[in-house]
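User: Hi! I'm working on a homework problem where we have to compare a predicted structure to a textbook description. Could you give me the structure for the chain below?
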Amino acid sequence: MSFSRSPLLLSPASSVPSPRSPFSEKEPESRAVATSNEDIRILFSPDLVTSSDYFRSPSNEFQSLSGAIPSVEQNTTSQLFLDTHASYTHSEAHTLSTQVSQGERNSKKVSSTDLSVVQLSSASLNAVRPSLRVKSSAIDQSGSHELALGSGDFLSGSRYGSGHKDPQNRIVYINNPGKTNERYEYSGNMVQTSKYTFYSFVPKNLFEQFHRIAYIYFLLVLCLNQIPQLAVFGRFASLFPLVFVLFVTALKDGYEDWRRHRSDKKENNRSALAFVNGRFEPKRWKDVMVGEVLKVQADETIPCDIVLLRTSDPNGVAYVQTMNLDGESNLKTRYAHFETAAHIEAEDRRLEQSSISGKVICEKPNRNIYGFTGYAEIDGHQLPLGPTNIVLRGCELKNTTWAIGVAVYTGQETKVMLNSAGAQSKRSLLEQKMNRETLWMSLFLLVCCFISGIGMGLWLKRHEHELDVIPYYGQKYENQYKYYGKVGESIFAFLSSLISFQIMIPISLYISIELVRLVQSYFMIRDVEMYHIETNNRLQCRALNINEDLGQVKYVFSDKTGTLTENKMEFKCASIFGENYEDGGDLEDCIASPDRKLVTEFSCGFKWKPKVRVKLDPSLVRVLQDSKNILQRTPVHNYLLTLAACNTVVPTKVELSSSGNLEMEVAIAADEGVSLIEYQGESPDEQALVSVAASYGYTLIERTSNHIVLNVLGENILFDVLGTHEFDSNRKCMSVVLRCPDGKIKVLVKGADSAMLRKVSLSAGSMHFGEEHKDRVFSSTQMHLEMYSTKGLRTLVVGFRELNATELVDWQQLYAKANASVSGRATLLHEAAQYIEKDLALLGVTGIEDKLQVGVPETISGLKDAGIKVWMLTGDKQETAISIGFSCDLLTHGMKQVIINASDKQQCRDMIKAAKEAYVLDKRGRNQTSHSGAGASHSAIDEQRNGPKSVNEPSLTSRLMDFLQKIKHSCSSVATSSIESVTSQQGHILALIIDGNALVHALENDLEEELFDLATACHVVICCRVAPLQKAGIVSLVKRKSKDMTLAIGDGANDVSMIQMADVGVGISGQEGRQAVLASDFAMGQFRFLRRLLLVHGHLNYRRLSYMVLYNFYRNSVFVLLLFWYTLYTAFSTSPAITQWSLVLYSIIYTSVPTIVVGIMDRNLSPQTLLKYPGLYMSGQQNESYNRPLFWLTMLDTLWQSLVLFYVPYFTFIHSTVDIWSVGSLWTIAVVVLVNFHLAMDVEHYTWIIHLAIWGSIVATYICIIVLDLLTDDESLVHYGTIFHIAATATYWLDILFIIVLALLPRFIVKVVKLKFKPADVDIAREEEILKH
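Assistant: Happy to help. Predicted structure tokens:
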């Protein structure tokens, strides 16, 4: 039998397809049906009109779906309506054309009209594709503010171009780059991600390195040492330490940037096909200009942001993969207007080569990757453009042979580049504090040198009359020793002291730290507990200068898709007509069950099979096969029909190629043979729903813009798609209007329960079953909905209704008016949707589990117990984000959700203010406003209450266990920097959920403080529908306002800006490309490894390096102070009693190795204890191992030890005949032994390597001193054999013993008292470890 349908395709009269074209391969022919409108032809594509032998009637079991397919006469109303619609559209287009032309003449004026994106389907005015609403005038200057961070300094216009400033909107002449860039020279397509150029490398790198204050100090000392009168050390020898450190660091930075240059060069020299001289010719990416027409082949990457003009698909559809932008691996659908495709065909049919013409008027470049607004002007007609008409740079063309588009944004003005924050220079927090302490040490050093200078002047004045006879002055010998007077000698004494005491600032510390970090990184890489077997990925340490920051993280900002989840959905439960159907286990288990024959026949008897196998419920299979049970079978049919049809997924056919590889192509119903169907779409949960419908026999096998084909239990059935209302955050549902083969018009709806249950009608007529069933179905469905939610499943409510002829016409008028409007389109579409999304028959509920990565809930729970706040920043929908929040234990049922969705700035301000007034407590625990203010906030905030979470009270058997439990649960009492984040005024724990539209305004300067106060008062923050640069903006806000350590973790290119902005960036080596890994500081296989990375390695790295820094300050200071005390008794001369070689070797051989070994090997707690008690991690957040009081306490201890070091030998030998070189030998040994015993006292985990390093360094010191005392050169002869002379006396050994005991006694007493009366959490945990062993 034959059938006809409503007109599907509209095109200009001249748009007759050409048999051959440089823009296409072979195209299907179309036949035109004449209409009364001379300018319009109604085209039928032969592959859309199917013969009777292809589409058979449904089986007798579905007679309700059968019937005569409507004829042309039956669709007269639709045809007349479509003609009216077409006329209306052309009238509207003429108006728009006039407006835009007028706007061109007044380009400097800013439009104030509130525009919405209009996206008329290129294939059918009955199937208008919805779009994102653009706030404010998208073609005026405010459009560039769409996703600003709040600072106002965003990239727009032609900032990177070399010509004039961009006007208020961008005018692109198609295939005419010369005219496009005639007045406003736009940015070229060359990109640059490197930090340095050949000329800027040396100055810029040195500027970055000299952020270390110690480097500036040593540069000053190096310059002073070049003065002959001050040359304490050799001129060239003094250059070596600083130059060596600068060179090694520059070499490392240069290599990293060389890799960026190499990547940029490779990217810029990739080849694209540009339309030149009537044909497509290869052209390098960097040479592509705005206005050029480009052709992209399948599996190629888009070179710049292009507006689609035509694709290989006859309906203008192109499938792209956007994982480099938003991290999603699912295919997205993009469209070319049929009118532009027809125009290109018409131009190509001319005898001469194509002269593609027209222009695109669009908004200026901005960072909003989810929005685009513009118009294409073709043959005098205005064609609105939206986000589904543009393909962004970095996307890949998939399942589409080719696509043609015009370049509108290139190079640095593309959206992906505008969302790239660039490589950041990161320095650890400990290193920044080192700079502060280095400054204090420098001031103390200057004081010592100033005392030496003043002391020299005073001494010279006191002995002014004796200078002629004092050696080394000898004024009567014609100034043989170059005496410069009291002032001159004082200045030289000051400068000489500055050079002699230079080791007060330990430049060797920086080299030691780099070495320790390198070995720590090796241990982290080799940790088998962070090895991912499935992907063969180990931890990667890509930045070696922030290892210790891992131990001080306070905020973790995490992406969702691919980071917390595997982005794999699994259908778990279905509630249909009040009956609960749950999966019956794996398919093999079902086949092995008593229902084996039933399931086997049902699942294996279809021509079309989903590639993903879904678990089948035998009871639901029986319902489908029971033709007599109409009461249950009809709701099940409508339920599965809704799952299969109410979506935006595209079916693709999977086949095995001749080479043995799986190949995909868009599926069509005419394909023969058994095929595997794989569904591609933007939403993974939609893919799961379509797959489960296919598994039960409702297989979506073809989708175009105006019809779908379902294989229903083996029979192919075609449904006309009259319109689609896609999901939005206001309606919280999606609906599709279908014309069934029997002529009935069905509205299929699915959405969130909060919205859908209000749309359900309980009348018997609307529910299509008897009055006696309505209460049971509704109550059972609600019970199942609550049960699924408690299981953490993602739930959707499914409903449907039928439209009569009057309702259909009324809805079509509303729908057409909305799609044809420019201003207020979203509002009109909402009204049209509300008209049909009412009085629904309740069909049931779906329950889907979003597959989390292994160990994610445990990891997040551990991080929360460690006092770390986890914020989830995702581009996904709000409902999805909340559902994942519950699944991964980020949200709990005891939390009060504060949801902020605002579309304008004032509304955003009011909602944030109301939330603060209602819930936020100040530091004194009082509500910030009166109770009346809090009550007023209820209307502004969407709050969700859940039952209280039960907490198991730990049993406390001893004081030790009491402390340990406090460690484990202490994170609940941690306060933020400015606001208590514990409870609201009602005693609830708060969770803030805010969307990207609200963040556009909340991140502005005047609102960011309010947002920060509210967000930090909440235990959990979830930001949904955020753009990449918004993620970076949130991280930047927390960094600036709180000064706490931040960590960002993600797996896609959309996370790069966030990763680079955070103090620590972690990339997941997942399925979403390697952009995040390449931009990260650390990379790992899965999110669960973050727990061990922070709680174990972060904790140990921080404690080790913190102690190492303090110990190095102590080690060098105690030696310098020893030299300083000596100058007080030698007329403030800088000539020391210790040999020059010992001065040099003290920091290189005598004491350097033990501190490096301890910094690598020592640990205070085992990994098992650190993971068992996550609260121990808070010691790093609270800076217990390195803080200002601890630094000054260490310096006070250093002062005491230096006094003991100097005065014990001084008073011992003051009246003896022992010379200064012998005492100097004693001081050298004593200080080395003392600092090593000091280190040994603080070691908490001894290994044989640590023993060897500590005690071996003392032995090495003795060997060096013996060797030095045996030298017979002129400079060494004065202390020849001194060690043998003094070491032969008992006084020598008693002095060393007395120095060690007396110097370390105060430190020992303080440690004992602290452990006894005020132990830290880590001390108690260590006590537990000792008792267990």
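For your comparison, note the following. Residues 1-166, 586-593, 923-960, 963-985 have pLDDT under 50 and may be disordered. The longest helix spans residues 1089-1127. Good luck with the assignment!
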